[in-house]
Design goal:
single chain, 308 residues, alpha+beta, Deoxyribonuclease I, Chain A, six-stranded mixed β-sheet, 8 helices
Length: 308
């Protein structure tokens, strides 16, 4: 237990170097698991008999808790302003889902998506689910050649955006511009690489930020599987560079099935890596996590209303 406590404290301390190093920033993503392990060592201190063991467990375990909490707690201190649900004029419902190219229940996933009657559906790893949804619905959709697809009830004013072939320049991204009673608004969907090797995600984020600057931000919606937790320094920097409001505050979405390489399902998701950003022209009416489907991600459902 003392080794676990020392490991937690050392991990949390080194993770602070993520402010300067993308490689060290990888360590920040696992802070919830590290916090739980550090808490166990502190609790164990109360049953440990040697006084020095008690002090060591409390000291190292407590240090791990404080350093990990330093990263996690700010995410939950930001309150989400929720607009009255009775204000229905101009509301849109959006679903964000990494549909998983190895989806184990294609028809069931599409059944659920259609039952939600969403105005916009943004899918990543859409190779399997995307064609089925397109065949079974009247949604307009972006091109199937991209792993990210956007489906909309309304006919797009502008369909899709040019995406560089080099994923180091920009992550796979799809976009549509739609029109309602208040004018045009754009929805972008994206899918980042994993945080390892360090540096690729950060490069993709800079490319996405450049793309975001090409659109009016007031009514912009950006959503996707960012493969990045909100307590990472990369996510914090992009929150600032995007100039948008992130609605998903600590909403855990992965894994919905087992961990990679394991068949056993996890009882609950371990990391919040799917996010939704909006401009100041949108108010949040509702945001919730959907059920476990055939994907390895949980869906995120957001209802937005125009700001007065």
């Amino acid at each position: 237990m003392l080794l676990v406590a020392v490991g937690c404290a050392g991990w949390a301390f080194v993770a602070q170097g993520g402010r300067w190093s993308p490689r060290l920033d990888v360590l920040t993503h696992f802070m919830p698991l590290l916090t739980a392990a550090a808490a166990v060592t502190v609790l164990y201190a109360f049953v440990a008999e040697p006084p020095l063991a008690k002090l060591a467990l409390i000291g190292f375990g407590g240090a791990g808790l404080v350093l990990a909490g330093w990263l996690i707690v700010p995410e939950y201190l930001t309150r989400q302003a929720i607009a009255p649900a009775t204000d229905t004029a101009g509301q849109i419902k959006l679903i964000q889902l990494n549909a998983w190219r190895a989806n184990q229940d294609l028809e069931g996933t599409v059944d659920w998506l259609l039952a939600q009657n969403a105005d916009v559906i943004v899918l990543q790893e859409a190779e399997a689910v995307g064609p089925v949804l397109k065949r079974r619905s009247a949604y307009y959709s972006t091109w199937e050649s991209c792993t990210v697809m956007i489906f909309s009830k309304a006919e797009p004013v502008v369909l899709d955006i040019p995406t560089p072939d080099d994923k180091r320049v920009r992550p796979p991204t799809a976009g549509v511009t739609l029109r309602d009673a208040r004018g045009d608004f754009t929805v972008l969907g994206t899918h980042y690489a994993w945080p390892v090797p360090g540096g690729l995600q950060q490069s993709q984020g800079r490319g996405l930020a450049r793309l975001i600057r090409q659109f009016p931000k007031e009514r912009l919606v950006v959503t996707g599987d960012f493969n990045s937790t909100p307590w990472s320094f990369t996510r914090r920097e992009e929150d600032a560079s995007f100039g948008l409001r992130r609605l998903t505050r600590g909403m855990f979405t992965w894994p919905a099935r087992g961990l990679p390489g394991r068949a056993t399902r996890t009882p609950f998701p371990l990391l919040p890596i799917d996010h939704v950003y909006v401009g100041s022209g949108w108010r949040t009416v509702k945001i919730e996590r959907g059920p476990r489907l055939g994907s390895d991600h949980y869906p995120v459902m957001v209802t937005l209303a125009p700001s007065p």
